[in-house]
Amino acid sequence: MKTKRFCPWCGRPLYKSNQKEFDFQCYNCDKDFPKTEVLRKTDLPEVKALRHRSYLDDLWRGEYPHSHRKPYPKRRKNYVRIKPQGQKYTEHTLIKLNGSYHYDHGIRQSDVDMANAYVRMIESSRSDKQPRNGDMIRLTTKHGDYYPCAHLEKLYEDGFSVCERPYIPFIFPHPTKNGISCSTSGGAWLSVPPKALKYVGKEEKFFKDWGACGARGNGAVSFKAEVSVWEYTEPDPVYDDYTTKDWRKIHLSKDVTTTKPEYLYYGNGIAFRTQQELDEYMALFHGKLYTVYWPNSFELWCYFEQNVKIPIDKWKSLDLPRTTFRAKPGHPVKIEIDDVKHIITLYTFYN
Ligand SMILES: [Zn+2]
């Protein structure tokens, strides 16, 4: 039934709630409210401001904006609301995740209640249609760097603010469909255009907030909640289809300071004395060399190298071919090539 009350999150008109302990319900936010929390006709300026913000948010997040003057359409009869786990953590299970905090301050019941409240807040606000604050992104940059656990901080007017390598995000409640706001350290940051994210599933992720002692050294309590996972690949790749998800990326510099350098190419824990050494390595490791913007700098994409030392009896019974690569007199090497995972394993032995 339509009412003359408005949603305190999105400003849309509310329906009567079908839940006993609540009075009103917003189909847009998928949330029930008691009558003390909702807005009335006298709050119209606030309602209009909320509508404006929520309209832009929906638009940017890629959801078709339904009129904000009408209540959101009723859910289908068979619609099941996401029911997050009621009490995910006990003192015992939360201590396991917060060993040093427990040692310094001691996990209390109020920390457990906080963690459980956050888990409910996060898990009940997730969606497979709209990305929400705190979601996870499988990010591939245009330089081919793959970050499986990139973090979606919030939506700005030019897009989602995303962190490639985040620390555990600090969170606080945000009374909107997002459930939470994040304050995250880490780097680097980039902006991802709205509507470019593809839903790929769900995964557990760590969050934290100050524990019972408040803000102080080692005073944050961490917990895990399930979030939506999205995929994003930056357009215009610099290195074709090469990404660090499946390939090794080595930055090489060329020494042109002398005519006879000790190492002609060097970088990332690898060095080549001569052009021939590099060419041989590239032939064996399926390498491709790209020149980059800076002079005498290169990016080498190739298979991963794994070196394994095993007892001599085991080595003798290995059904693998021998190679002269990295072999020295008296120290033969057997080679295994994995073309699926792009790994070359070199086996040597000890007595
Ligand atoms: Zn609402």
Query: What is the helix/strand order?
Result: EEEEHHHHEEEEEEEEEEEHEEEHEEE
Overall tally of structural domains? 4
The side-by-side strand order for the widest beta sheet comes to 10-7-6-5-12-11
Bound molecules: zinc ion
Beta strands, count: 21
Determine the number of helices (DSSP H or I, runs of at least 4 residues).
6
> Strand-residue fraction?
35-45%
The separation of the N and C termini measures: 82 Å
Shape, principal axes of CA atoms:
elongated
Structural class by SSE content: alpha+beta
Oligomer: single chain
Helix share of residues? 10-25%
What composes the largest sheet?
6 strands, mixed
InterPro entries: DUF4121
Pfam family, one: DUF4121
Protein name: DUF4121 family protein
What is the structure about, briefly put?
This protein is α+β, with helices and mostly antiparallel strands.
Structural write-up:
This is DUF4121 family protein. It comes from Dysgonomonas termitidis. The structure is a single chain. The chain has four domains: 60 residues, no CATH class; 143 residues, no CATH class; 55 residues, no CATH class; 46 residues, no CATH class. It is built from six helices and 21 strands. Strand 19 and strand 20 form a beta hairpin. Strands 10-7-6-5-12-11 form a six-stranded mixed β-sheet. The model has no long low-confidence stretch (mean pLDDT 90). It starts with a strand and ends with a strand. By secondary structure, it is α+β, with helices and mostly antiparallel strands. The protein binds zinc ion (ZN). Zinc ion (ZN) binds next to loops.
Which key phrases capture this entry?
five-stranded antiparallel sheet; alpha+beta; 6 helices; 4 domains; 351 residues; single chain; elongated; 21 strands
